[in-house]
Amino acid sequence: MQIDEIFLSLQGETEFVGIPFLFVRFSGCNLRCSYCDTPAAFTISPTCHIHFHGQESFLSNPLSIEQLTTLLSPYQGYWLSFTGGEPLLQREALETCLTHLKGFRFWMETNGTLPEALSPIIFSHIDVWSMDLKLPSAIGKNLWETQERFFSRIAETGKTIILKVILTPTTTLEEMEEVWKHFLLWREKTRSLSLTFQPMTSEKKVIQSESLRWAYEKTLSWPDGKVHLIPQIHPILQIP
Ligand code: SF4
């Protein structure tokens, strides 16, 4: 498996923010979002960067499941996030991880654009799906139809799904209305659904935008605690 980075940090996004998480960052991504903060994951790195508690080391790619098990087994009981890049690009490696790593709660961080890569093994092991909503202003094309298919498949599992949308200065109010329309429609398919508005953060500051103000008002209007407005905390806390 081609892994860019393995580290222990805090969950920096969604309503799980602040909880310790192991992160396994898969190399490679099928998108090129304008706001991407992990461009290193676009390409296959010859080495995997490992950092726990300020101690760092490197292993040559590809990693074996035995190497990964040895590295991660002292952390059983933690949440383990598969992130990227896009982990579903390496479906077989992901399935190997899910069937061999024991004692973790699994979190899938996905751009939600590869419905054909989903499989029964993945469905049965992932506890929480964190699915980005990819807007045309950020990726240069409309992927709603693909994201709809992806969502419909993961909704059938009944697992927790968190939709996340990044707010940038180029996000339009029409796009925000589209996000909201999909959130309301998709709630009909599963009640285990929440939505996080995440304003972009740069140089420790949240970037102001009309979509941020729109999201603030929308969050205030929603009483059941399933809609959140949360900035990225990693750059603010200056942690990995
Ligand atoms: S999907 Fe994620 S990793 Fe890929 S380009 Fe977009 S933000 Fe970056």
Automatic annotation (TrEMBL):
Positions annotated to bind Mg(2+):
38
| InterPro entries in UniProt | 7-CO-7-deazaguanine_synth-like, Aldolase_TIM, rSAM, rSAM_sf
**Leading EC class:** lyase
Where [4Fe-4S] cluster binds, per the record, is at 29, 33, 36
User: Where does this protein act, in terms of pathway?
Assistant: Purine metabolism; 7-cyano-7-deazaguanine biosynthesis
Q: Where does S-adenosyl-L-methionine bind?
A: 35-37, 85
Please name the PROSITE patterns in this protein's record.
Answer: RADICAL_SAM
Pfam families linked: Radical_SAM
Q: Where is the Radical SAM core domain?
A: 16-240
Does the keyword section mention Magnesium? yes
- GO molecular function annotations of the record: 4 iron, 4 sulfur cluster binding; carbon-nitrogen lyase activity; magnesium ion binding; S-adenosyl-L-methionine binding
Keywords of this entry: 4Fe-4S, Iron, Iron-sulfur, Lyase, Magnesium, Metal-binding, Queuosine biosynthesis, S-adenosyl-L-methionine
Residues that, per the record, bind substrate: 10-12, 25, 83, 240
Q: Offer one example of a GO biological process linked to this entry.
A: tRNA queuosine(34) biosynthetic process
Reactions that this protein is recorded to catalyse: 6-carboxy-5,6,7,8-tetrahydropterin + H(+) = 7-carboxy-7-carbaguanine + NH4(+)
For this protein, the Enzyme Commission number is: 4.3.99.3
What cofactor does this chain's UniProt record say it requires?
Answer: S-adenosyl-L-methionine; Mg(2+); [4Fe-4S] cluster
Free-text cofactor note: Binds 1 S-adenosyl-L-methionine per subunit. Binds 1 [4Fe-4S] cluster. The cluster is coordinated with 3 cysteines and an exchangeable S-adenosyl-L-methionine.
Under the heading HAMAP family, the entry gives:
QueE (MF_00917)
So what family is this one in?
Belongs to the radical SAM superfamily. 7-carboxy-7-deazaguanine synthase family.
* Assembly information from the UniProt record: Homodimer.
Protein's job: Catalyzes the complex heterocyclic radical-mediated conversion of 6-carboxy-5,6,7,8-tetrahydropterin (CPH4) to 7-carboxy-7-deazaguanine (CDG), a step common to the biosynthetic pathways of all 7-deazapurine-containing compounds.
User: Any idea what this protein is called?
Assistant: 7-carboxy-7-deazaguanine synthase
